[in-house]
Amino acid sequence: MGWIKEHPVLEFSHKKKVKFVFDGKDLEGYEGEPIAAALHANGVTTYRKTKRMDRDRGFFCAIGKCSSCFMVVDGVPNVRTCVTALKEGMNVETQHGDGQVALLDERKRR
Amino acid sequence: MAWKTADIVVIGGGVQGCSSAYHLAKMGVKNIIVVEKGTICSGSSGRCGAGIRAQWGTEMNCRFGKACLERFENLEEELEMNVGLDQSGYLMVAYKDSEFDQLKENIKLQNSLGIDSRVVSKDEAYEICPGLSADDALGFTFYQRDGHADPFFTTFAFMESAKRLGVEFLKFTEVIDIKVENGAVKTVVTDKGEIDTPVVLNAAGGFFHDIAEMIDLELPVHSENHDILVTEPVELGVCPPMLMSFSGNYYLQQRPDGTIVGGCSPVGHPIEYDLRSNFSFLEHMASVFTKLLPRTRDIRVVRQWAGLYNMSLDCQPIMGEAEHVKGFYMTGAFSGHGFMFAPVTGELIAQLIVRGNTDMPIDMLHYRRFAEGKLIIEPAVV
Q: Considering the entire predicted model, what is its pTM?
């Protein structure tokens, strides 16, 4: 997989490349483009695991409606990665079930 | 010609009405009709915060609370249906010295009545409630046996058990008048027809005082709108106990499905029947959530709703028979803690109706206390 270079309708003007973390791995993507686009370009297809059956879910509707691409981003569960812009240093994690709100972090911060 | 006849008509298909009907039937009353203007549990019962606690500040409420915990612990077995009981405790938070002193007083009283509540340190509070941030709090008290149950499961369980004992439920049937003859209840007039009955139990929740007015009984009672919201589900462990503060004016708790529910009292307690959602509550409650449970900051609110608190002058229930109309019984004005008391108050009012006396004293809850100036002042209400 990689980045779409040509598209019959849309134009892409990839700007600044930024680093982000996916499940502990350093990856690269373009700033301001959807997190899901960067993951897709990096070959990541599983974004979350379902609550009861532990099944894979990934990129689906791409317009922020379907809940398929929910991930834990910077400790916040249920982030719609298909419509959330990528930023430098983001911590993106596979979401398991409903997603855990980060608790320990906050404790350390106090 | 009457549409129906009954031995007892219960007005209101909420948790009080269903519990009372169940206990009446269990005590052998045969021809019971429950009249509900909407659907079962569609009023205040189905809208409530669903907490159950024994951490009270008066002996009466401590005894009620303790009895209710005991009932709830055995309710699933008794009614043969899940009631969604979760005993993760109530964590009370004090922000003022006077408030913490009061909580400590309450603990003394509770301990003397066999309620094993205690003061906990901040570190312990954080362990009990891992999502909590309360640096400005002065003290905490905790009782493990407190908790919450599912108001729908509980009400439906009472209804189903009552049905099995022969109770008839009339939904979408609104009471519009009560006819009195020779100082006794004669007929309940509904929008579907008239029901002849010698006994009426007013368990109309938010409309308790409106029903009382039908026999020209003016009660110092009003209804007010209390809002509550629920977030999307997140994994469990954010806020297992019911987090509650009187001065902080909030209650919050994570439900077994992972959603977090929270509400507060309206400032100034205005009379309000309008249950439409309003933005000011959403804004206020969101700020309470993010202050207390900082990591819920970016999770979504799924919906908000409101229900009626039926408030009496002293925020305590009114139970008993009308003085001037024989056969008109009341159980209402629970002032925000009706759900948790329902298994016990339903049984007590049934005893009063059938036997004329009760296992636990409830005569101090008669509305004559307002005229006599014997108000029951409870320090532990939100």
A: 0.89
Backbone region of residue A97 per phi and psi (left: phi > 0; alpha: psi in -120 to 50; beta: other values): left
Question: Domain spanning B87-146+224-309: which superfamily?
Answer: D-Amino Acid Oxidase, subunit A, domain 2 (3.30.9.10)
Q: Pick from B135, B233, B296: which is nearest to A98 by CB?
A: B233
Q: Provide long-range contacts, Cβ within 8 A and 24+ apart, for A23-30.
A: A23/A92, A23/A93, A23/A94, A29/A86, A30/A86
pLDDT per residue over B84-142, tens digit each?
999 999 999 999 999 999 999 999 999 999 999 999 999 999 999 999 999 999 999 99
Complex ipTM > 0.85: no
Residue spans per domain, chain B = 4-46+152-221+314-372, 87-146+224-309
CB contact under 8 A, B295 and A77: no
Write the class of the CATH domain B4-46+152-221+314-372: alpha beta
Task: Enumerate the residues of chain B whose CB falls inside 8 A of the CB of residue A107.
Answer: 126
Tell me the residues of chain B between 116 and 135 that have a Cβ less than 8 Å away from chain A.
126, 130-131, 133, 135
